[in-house]
Amino acid sequence: MGWAIALHGGAGDIPLSLPAHRREPAEAVLRHCLQIGVSALKANTPPLDVVELVVRELENSPHFNAGRGSVLTTNGTVEMEACIMDGTKKCGAVSGLSTIVNPISLARLVMEKTPHIYLAFDGAEAFAKEQGVETVESSHFITPRNIERLSQAKEANKVQLDYTQPPPPKDEPQDPAANEGDSQIGTVGCVAVDRHGNLATATSTGGFVNKMVGRIGDTPVIGAGTYANSFCAVSATGKGEFIIRATVARDVAALMEYKGLSLKEAAAYVIEQCTPKGTAGLVAVSVTGEVTMPFNTTGMFRACATEDEYSEFGIWPSLTDSAI
Ligand code: ASP
């Protein structure tokens, strides 16, 4: 039994041709965040603090779709969401945030300072004010890059899309499912376990480009995008509607709890059998320090490290990935 940590920066249709200027900064941030998490675990920082710390750092980067880099709704506004949970099943979640710098920390405050689990929209913003958390003008998110993303998604009649591919010709027949959302680069998550088997998970997102106002995805839904119990901690990414239907994160834990599967077996089963190809990925650690990062999308920004010096970093499938 040893510590382990894994993080993701979003699963989706990440083309192999992703330009270096898009790939390299995101990779650098992921490596940096992995380092922060590893140092914290080595210094015996509790996993709940570790996942919050790492996700805050990812939220502060403009290269991911969470916090500072969050994408726009169809009305050109921002509605961020986040969730945090530990192996004792304490949890907090937030949705519909438009001014909060670090949604993951607000989720933690909901968990620790309220009798509730999930706050959204005006109520969540009011609670944030009351708690004195750092905020910015909501106009801060209306960057030229975000406006461009939104207009591309609108032109292609898609609910998101973030690989800056030219939209298909308007008269080309399209599969309606295609409009339900190719996952995009960017949602972030981190899972960690310490030497004592304390587990925690955190996930944060801006959702999809061009999403309907008020749309809530899987990220803040306990058991869908985010879940931890005494067996494992899971953070999922991909097309939220599919992840919610499959209760992805909870099913991984349930397969371990009720069927005795290992973490790797449980996660591979959920990603291969319970979610359609091209829709989901996850990172997870178990109470005994196992780690797994399967996905059924083209790619997933991911990184992990364990106390016994196993480490992996990647975007596309590696030869050892079995979940594709
Ligand atoms: N799962 C997120 C959502 O549906 C998006 C993502 O993971 O990229 O909001």
Structure description:
The protein contains 8 helices and 12 strands. By secondary structure, it is of the alpha+beta class. It has one domain (4-314): 4-Layer Sandwich (Glutamine Phosphoribosylpyrophosphate, subunit 1, domain 1). A hairpin with a 4-residue loop joins strand 11 and strand 12 (311-314). The radius of gyration is 18 Å and the shape is globular. The structure holds aspartic acid. Aspartic acid binds next to strand 8 and helix 6.
Which SSEs are present, and which pair or pack?
Elements: E1 4-12, H1 20-42, H2 47-59, E2 80-86, E3 91-97, H3 103-113, E4 118-120, H4 121-131, H5 144-155, E5 188-193, E6 199-205, E7 226-228, E8 232-238, H6 240-245, H7 248-259, H8 263-274, E9 280-286, E10 291-292, E11 299-306, E12 311-314
Parallel strand pairs: 3-4
Antiparallel strand pairs: 1-5, 1-11, 2-3, 2-6, 5-6, 7-8, 8-9, 9-10, 11-12
Helix pairs in contact: 1-2, 2-3, 7-8
The structure holds aspartic acid.
